[in-house]
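note to self — DONT lose this again. spent like an hour looking for the file last time. sequence + predicted structure for the chain T wanted, 688 res
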Amino acid sequence: MRRFLLLSIVFLSTLLSYGQHRFVENKGQWDENVQFKTEIEGGSLYLESGRLTFDRYDSEVVSKVFGAHRGEKPIPPPKKLDCHAYRMSFVGANEIMPEGNTPFQTKYAYYLGERAGKNAVAYQEILYSNLYEGVDLKIHSKSNLKYDFIVKAGGDPSQIKILYEGVKPKLKGDGTMELNTSVGKVEESEPFAYQIIDGQIVRVECSYQLNGNLLSFELGNYASESDLIIDPELIFSTYSGSSSDNFGYSATFDLEGHLYSGSTSFGTGYPVTTGAYQADWAGGTGAGTLAGTDIALSKFNLEGTELEYSTYLGGSGDELPHSLITDSLGRLFLLGTTGSSDYPTSAGAFQTVFQGGAPTVLGGVGINYDEGSDIVVSALSSDGQDLIASTFVGGTENDGTNTATALKYNYADEVRGEIEMDDDGNILVGSCTFSSDFPTVSGAIQPTLNGNQDGVFFVLNPLMTDLLASTYMGGSGADAIYSISFSENTGVTLGGGTTSLDLPMPANAFNGAYSGGQADGFAITIDEFATEILSGTYFGTDEYDQIYFVDRDAEGSVYFFGQTESETNELFFNANYGQEGRGMFISKLSPSLENADFSTTFGNTVGVPPLSPVAFAVDLCNRIYTSGWGGLPTNSQGTTTGLEVTDDAFQSTTDGRDFYFMVLEDDGNALTFASFYGGALSGEHVDG
């Protein structure tokens, strides 16, 4: 297994932001010292053996000269344009010639007086292999120019020393480094280090060390046998490219970093790939003016520039994807609902017959389950060409759709639930049902339906031929499981919303009684085979509250992400970050759900949830990651306007209808990162 340490630095000056850079090889058109050149806004970067040379001009003056293009009064061209060149020389480095990786198709020709270069190739990235012993240097970009030091096993990062010539570097209090040139400032981002260990992200402390003009890096303790990566920035963003209506529901990733998307496609225009499992749209009933839907699944390459596969999945009725996950082999597992009696199932599947239920229209998402809905669980091969397992799971009433009036608070709250996997490849699902004959197994915690809508939890074997565990989870009111978190040591924590006053809560619960209001959140931990309740609690106030996501940290503590309409500070304690009485809560409870470590609320208006929650995670350093979207059609009051962003936000402004991403430090002590993401032409959102 290849293991290495990666140090990554980003040039943050807007003068250097130039889209994806093209590193063009020297075919004689430039000085012989130059191996590659790339254009940067306001100048050029020359890549040479052992050094990088930046040649910059006064881009502000040039912009004013061409002001007429923007409707402004231009200034006369100056007789002399100010320029500034500086170098980064790698002290003590080996004499290595850089090499280009991943060529673009376009070739370039240059005619510069006596110099000429034909058929020059441009590359997406440049590699200085073994620049120092056991240390590579990679230079690349997405939107900002980046350079990465890759320290392999046995390599010594203290070898790395960079001498700045022609400019005086200055360290700033926020950990970044500033270069003041005569034609503007350049800022290099604070190095951010983390390792991926057992599929989890672990942060490693890293900072610049400056001795005069000589730069080096200071690292904290790290596992030398594992990768270490620095710099959380946007990797890629893309449209699906569908010519028919296409609504997004879920996404996931695999161990290599590929992105998978799950959506619905209202027609034949979704871009399927050669060899796809289902190349043709199978149709559906649809709602309103929208045609019927199939599930549409896509796997993107690491850069987001290509589809590795893309396929439909569905029958002649409507269907929806609710949740996605991949296994260690890169196979994609899907939790969804369907109204199709001919939804594809696999040989020997646990349930091959559609049970259906009452006709149901899911407003806004274009779905008409005219013969009711069943839960479906399906798995695709790593190349998207084979359906390796697929089954219905349901009774004779509607399954998988949260249509209880009190719990359906946000647009598309009907389309929730979560799929997980254990270490043996068994498939764990949390959802809800109206069926009194939902399949359960002997010894289930709750073998019968208690209310009109109950939560359900079940486990399938990897080939989906056997139901290993299944139980209802609910009281006499309405209940829904939105999220599950599993570990071999702690069991399965179920999180969701309830109106039931009689959920089965242990005597030592943090809150053993329903708090009141339209709904309460709840969390219950059970064993994997659903035979015993290990711990549990209600969580809420005397106003509306729901838990939409649960997760556990390495010590087993349980984290909640949810909504509240409480205007009090009841859910704000032991946290340094937050605003009292706001509509989103993040909370941490003990592993046994007996005690609360901290809870914080954030938002923009007292007592109003601004976001519909869509994602939540806790990393090995106990940093907390949340994502949601606001603005119509969230609810009647939600908006992203006024939410806090950090100085390094990817997008610092909002039209009130955007995605919002936030990272909190351990125990809610500080806001690490927050940004909007979206455009100004429509309201960005997730269906479900």
